Amino acid sequence: MNRRNAVLTAVASAAALSAQSKKAADQTIQLHVDMNVDPAKEKDLKKNFKEIFKPAMAKQPGYLHVYLLKLRETKAGRAPEGANYRLVINFKSEEDRLNWVKSNDHQSAWPTIEGTLKVKTYGAILYDQL
């Protein structure tokens, strides 16, 4: 292999690695948490989400988005059993999300959401966002 071909191969390899690194960095995670919220506590849920939970989460490294969704209707298939609300949590990485879970902010914010649940068990599904 001559020097020119070696340089061209090295440049192509570096470009390919850079593209792979960017693609990996663009792949974030989403956690979907299906909850059965007590209808009598919906106002508390919305207030706590807006005033406590979301601001606490927004301070965390790697935080991207958090959404609170209320189930309206099932168009196809089945809705998550017993769930009437869903939290969609988006972080840059699973490591960032786990650091949020370990944080003091999470330890004080999550009970304000959990306290509105009719049933204290909930489904949590982790996705890679591509």
Explain what the structure shows:
The chain is an alpha+beta fold and 130 residues long. The chain has a single domain (27-129), classed as Alpha-Beta Plaits (2-Layer Sandwich). It is built from four helices and four strands. A four-stranded antiparallel β-sheet has the order 2-3-1-4. Helix 2 (42-58) runs antiparallel to helix 4. The longest helix is centred in the first third of the chain and has 24 residues, at 3-26. 12% of the residues are buried.
- The total of helices stands at 4
Percentage of residues assigned to helices = 40-55%
| CA(first)-CA(last) distance | 38 Å
Q: Which residue ranges are poorly predicted, with pLDDT under 50 across at least 5 consecutive positions?
A: 16-23
Q: What CATH architecture would you give?
A: 2-Layer Sandwich
Topology:
Layout lengths: L2 H24 L1 E8 L6 H17 L4 E8 L14 E7 L2 H9 L1 H11 L8 E7 L1
Antiparallel strand pairs: 1-3, 1-4, 2-3
Helix pairs in contact: 2-4
Summarize the structure.
The protein is of the alpha+beta class and about 130 residues long. The protein is built from 4 helices and 4 strands, in the order H-E-H-E-E-H-H-E.
